[in-house]
Amino acid sequence: PPAPVPPTPPPQPSTFGIRDQIPVWAMTVSSPNKVANAARLADAADALAAAVAAGTTSGPAKILAALTAANALALGSDLAAWKSFGVSYAAAIGGLYAMKKLPTDADWAEMLRETAAGLRLVK
């Protein structure tokens, strides 16, 4: 008989809860390119997380401006299809910021990594 396959461990809980909400918010996106767009957004979030972790982009205003620009570039002509997603995502980030859960650039970098992980779950 074949060897038993161990069960896949559940994913670690996300620090900010962003990862698990992204696939829910993405259900509002009506685009045949949704999965490909989500992958491009994930790559952009990972790249920005790396820039923040390296110190080349820092502070909430600069990080948010870079995120907005990266998202617009990644989505191109599908930007409008992601508007409702963007509203939910922005509200979540605003809530985290207001609750002082993003006090350091390291926290922003982790939130961006969670964003990328959540975008990779979009189907």
Q: Roughly how many Å is the radius of gyration?
A: 16 Å
- Any low-confidence stretches, pLDDT <50, length ≥5? none
Q: Beta fraction of the residues?
A: under 5%
Query: Can you write the helix and strand succession as a string?
Result: HHHHH
Structure classification: mainly alpha
Tell me, briefly, the overall form: globular
Kindly state the mean pLDDT as a whole number? 94
Number of helices: 5
Summarize the main sheet: none
Through-space gap between termini: 34 Å
Helical content stands at 55-70%
Let me know the number of strands: 0
Helices and strands in order, then pairings?
Layout: H1 18-26, H2 34-54, H3 60-75, H4 83-98, H5 105-119
Helix pairs in contact: 1-4, 1-5, 2-3, 2-5
What would the keywords be for this entry?
123 residues, mainly alpha, single chain, globular, 63% helix, 5 helices
